[in-house]
Amino acid sequence: MKKEWWQEAVVYQIYCKSFCDSNGDGIGDLRGVISKLPDIKELGVNCIWFNPLYRSPQVDNGYDISDYQDIDPSYGTLDDFKELLELAHSMGIRVVMDLVLNHTSDEHKWFQESRKSKDNPYRNYYVWRAPKENGKEPNNWGNYFYEGRGSAWQFDELTGEYYLHNYSWKMPDVNWEYEPLRQEMYKMMRWWLDLGVDGFRLDAINRLKKPAGLPDSKMPPAPPVGIYGYVVDRAICTNVPGIHEILREINKNVWSQYDIMTVGETGNLSSDGALDYICQSHNEIDMVFHFEIGKNANIITVNQYKETQQRWIDLMKHNAWISQFLTNHDSPRQVSRFGNDKEYRVPSAKMLATLVHTMPGTPFVYQGEEIGMTNVYFDTIDDYNERYTIGKYNTMIEAGVSPEKALGKLRDLSRDNARTPYQWNDSANAGFTTGKPWIKVNPRYPEINFEADRKSPDSIFEYYKKLIQMRRDHPAIIDGNFRFLMMEHPQMVVYLRKCARETLLVVTNFSDDKIKIELPQEIQDFTWERILTNRADTQPSLSGRTEWLPWEAEVYTLSE
Ligand code: NOJ
Description:
Elements: H1 5-8, E1 11-14, H2 30-43, E2 47-50, E3 54-55, E4 67-71, H3 78-90, E5 94-100, H4 109-114, E6 128-129, E7 153-156, E8 161-164, H5 179-195, E9 199-203, H6 243-253, E10 261-265, H7 271-278, E11 287-289, H8 302-315, E12 323-324, H9 334-337, H10 345-358, E13 362-366, H11 387-398, H12 403-411, H13 450-455, H14 460-473, H15 475-479, E14 481-485, E15 492-498, E16 503-509, E17 515-516, H16 521-524, E18 527-533, E19 547-548, E20 553-559
Parallel strand pairs: 1-2, 1-13, 2-5, 5-9, 9-10, 10-11, 12-13
Antiparallel strand pairs: 3-4, 6-8, 7-8, 14-15, 15-16, 16-20, 17-19, 18-20
Bound molecules: 1-deoxynojirimycin.
1-deoxynojirimycin (NOJ) binds at residues 60, 63, 100, 167, 203-204, 265, 329-330.
């Protein structure tokens, strides 16, 4: 079967702000990325996804766009971008942009016009509502960043109405019901695609449709913002009936006319509703990022991990494709969250990568994973930057929580864990900038950095290279069917990948424990040869193996 290019791709996600600063202003930039393209190429990935690069006041690090058709000056110029695009293409690397269609910055010219008067031609580009009789917000929705006292509505004196902002008050939601807005968005997308970009990661894409009548959330108000009567209900504006019509229309008008990849960020989507978005015959989007693994407040168990993977992989039987990732710029670092960033940092980073790269679907690597970067844990809220951590902290303090307790609750999950500067070497600021970095560098940089990893005989980067190469050499990884073995085991994650040409066996220990167990008889009856391991000190054949080291990961081929 002919595969689409994005089914064979390995995608590297670049958070430009924190990647490499070329001009000493403390902010990563496009010329910095250009200087590192050879390293990205060496890793073996063949696609880059950039977090938003557009002109923006940077309230939410670029997810608040004030001009969709320009590059933010802190990152460089449109010419820098074009140069990067051409260079990347010449190296066989595609480039995917992050596209925010749910909201803009309040500094976008559409919003500036929209707020001027009720009959401004741009008024309906956004969601405006009159106050209730008592002057209050039109409904009880809370914003996802816990800003102010939590409402998702901001009153605008000029016209005496409220506008909707599901995220920051600086990020008004746009109104997809309004045809002229839709046409503007299509025009803008075509402009990027005509420039040569290879697709979009679609921010908050299942939130474009709002529920009819914008009814109150029925969820019980919970502290901290519950005390003011607001409810942070992440479900109420997601997967609302009508969303699929919107996506099909965009697909028909824009995406289907180019050879591109679209991957939607879909919070609050379970495997149940996913086919509606990703079944290829529905003509909507190619893949989604779901958060059934990565975003739960409680770390999931290994059994839950397997069960979740199984449900999503099953969708592939219905003419659909999935993504594989554990973390991104909105989450803690994967080795800290799912692995052990202390005594088993290196093996657990490699073991987690093994899962991402050998399960069915397209793997996404978040910058820094390939050298095992870890969470940061700042001591004071003043060192944090991201809107959600700060908003939630402030509302918790107002609700009477102590600063230590508030910080303690937020640190593990803060999105800033993933946003500290890339650690290139052990020089000042980890070699990220010659200036003052926009956010503090992780203090572990003298030990954990690109240069040190590249010199290490136990290099994580080298292991990623092997994994990515293995994907090209072994068709079963992309095409093969999938079957878990020992499904019930609470620590071992073991599975087969099988296509007409070969069978692969992946054996991993998802724990700090040494596990004593024999693999199932059906495996033992064959001869297996190891093609990859994250532990140099174990025997290369499976026969008689009964013991698995903490975070061990191995891949075998079956030889007849
Ligand atoms: C999801 C993005 O990944 C996140 O970083 C951003 O804050 C929100 N959407 C709002 O755009």
